[in-house]
Design goal:
The chain is mainly alpha-helical and 102 residues long. The chain contains two helices and four strands; from the N terminus they run H-H-E-E-E-E.
């Protein structure tokens, strides 16, 4: 089965929505009324949250691999990845204002 970058991006969006929905319901799930038996427990919500986090991580890895395989470029005979990643943490802000490195 062939997968496109758009399909990966949309899957990440769906899992992000699922994760955010379970996180939003968590505080409300801590309280239960005696007559309400159909509420989702905090444990179930955390399982959903963790499942979504793991799926997002796997999809982001797949997205990076997809970009690496389909969008390589060369500069001075060296292969580079067409992917922006956050710069490593530094002790003080850079004077030149770079936030991301390629």
């Amino acid at each position: 089965m062939k997968v496109t970058g758009i399909q990966i991006r949309e899957a990440i969006k769906r899992w992000t929505l699922r994760r955010d929905a379970s996180a939003g319901q968590f505080s409300e799930s801590l309280w239960q009324f005696s007559e309400d038996k159909n509420t989702t427990t905090p444990v179930d919500l955390m399982k959903t949250f963790q499942e979504a986090e793991a799926a997002i991580a796997r999809l982001q890895l797949a997205q990076t691999r997809y970009e690496y395989d389909s969008l390589p470029f060369s500069i001075a005979a060296r292969r580079h990845i067409f992917c922006i990643r956050p710069a490593p943490p530094i002790s003080s802000p850079p004077s030149h204002g770079v936030i991301f490195q390629v």
